[in-house]
From TrEMBL:
Domain of life: Bacteria
Pfam families: MST
Gene3D superfamilies documented for this protein: dinb family like domain
InterPro entries named among the record's database cross-references: DinB/YfiT-like, MST-like
Name of the protein described by the UniProt record: DinB family protein
Originating species: Actinomadura monticuli
Length: 174
């Protein structure tokens, strides 16, 4: 399922834990992209909040959330840049002036697809591997915990983006 295809909330008849978690994760991935669609580049790069994050930086942040939790965390892949959305000097989310909105969107979509590939055959009870985001002696979370954690992060950030979008151009809704 692609982000564009999953615009509808999972059906209320869905009772499988795996399908429910993955369905809602795709739902929020798509909601994020819908809320960004149609925003001019200037608005994507302008903060409306005291904390200073921009809508485009939020998209980049969630691409790196996917990378950190699924590739580096769960699959224990050795990935070069797991905190790439943070400015080295401030640790705040940032987008470089030469990074286009399309480039950040592609990064996000690529990371989402990699995440889907990682979880497709994994059991919800499988623990995160050692050697990436978690050491061998650390308590490593199960996939079900990671999915729920990432899902709640999306829900929180998409809600924040609702407000930012309304402040930007008055758009509300899905």
């Amino acid at each position: 399922m692609t982000d564009e295809q999953s615009a509808a909330e999972p059906p209320p008849t869905l009772t499988g834990t795996r399908e429910l978690l993955l369905g809602y994760l795709d739902y929020y991935r798509a909601a994020l992209l819908r809320k960004l669609d149609g925003m001019p580049d200037g608005d994507l790069r302008t903060s409306r909040l005291p904390s200073g994050w921009t809508p485009l930086a939020l998209l980049k942040h969630l691409a790196y959330v996917e990378r950190r939790w699924f590739r580096w965390g769960f699959a224990a892949e050795q990935v070069d840049d797991v905190w790439g959305e943070q400015a080295p000097a401030t640790q705040r989310w940032h987008v470089l002036p030469d990074e286009s909105a399309d480039e950040i969107r592609r990064l996000f979509l690529d990371e989402c697809e990699r995440s889907r590939t990682i979880v497709v055959d994994a059991d919800l009870r499988d623990q995160a591997g050692a050697g990436g985001g978690f050491g061998a002696s650390e308590q490593r979370p199960a996939l079900i915990w990671i999915l729920f954690h990432v899902l709640q992060e999306y829900a929180r950030h998409v809600g924040q983006l609702d407000i930012v979008r309304e402040l930007s151009d008055g758009a509300t809704g899905e």
